[in-house]
Amino acid sequence: MAQQLIGFIGAGNMANSLAGGMIAKGIRPARIWMSDPSQDRLDEVAQLHRVHVSRDNLDVARRVDVLVLAVKPQVMGDACAALREIIEERQPLIISIAAGVTVDNLRNWLGEAPIVRCMPNTPSLVQAGATGLYAAPDVSAEQKEMAGQILSAVGLTFWFETEGELDAVTAVSGSGPAYFFLLMEALIDAARAQGLSAATARQLVLQTAWGASQLAITSEDGPDVLRQRVTSPGGTTAAALQVFEEAGLREQVQAAVAAARERSEQLSG
Q1: Into which CATH architecture does domain 6-164 fall?
Q2: What sequence ranges are listed for the domain Pyrroline-5-carboxylate reductase catalytic N-terminal (predicted)?
């Protein structure tokens, strides 16, 4: 990213995670600016990351080459409208991480500017995220590379050719952590119903989930093959999986993801 300066409008959890990830990958804190209305939050950020901070969004926007919009979707319009003049004048790369806020929305508020829209997920907070990215047609290859480097600081990145594909990303990886958390909850409850203590049930389930994930990530084989290896004919795993199959688990997952995508499309619209 050469020596471009990077600014954040909003210093919440995701912005903090991105800043921390970039610094961990070698970007000097002096190249990062963050703004937020909360002085307490800015003090925490400055102490944690040693970055520049300001309560003035315009002050940050005037200084940087890349501006990450990290405010809540419901206040994005007001935040952008106040930045419109300086954005049209300086033309920084705009990176939005707000769910449901489209490129057209941003252009209506900001005017013409190169925009990359991103859909990170909550594991990004621990540098284990999966982020979908879409670049408007006027974004250069160099700017796409910058956006990819920033978001890769918190996990894997995936580029998509059409903005509508981000609705599918939202349904799979954006909402996906909640699907796994629900399964963890249910498995913990099931373990307790079998007589295990709450603490033991939680530790067993979380370690099993982490181990299964690591095995799937590091293996050359797909989850289907790994599942088959664990499942001996007529064994305990086969008995459990038969219950899932008879309950229509696969169909329920398909329906759940479709419902999440439909809601994402409604929100984007």
Answers
A1: 3-Layer(aba) Sandwich (3.40)
A2: 6-100
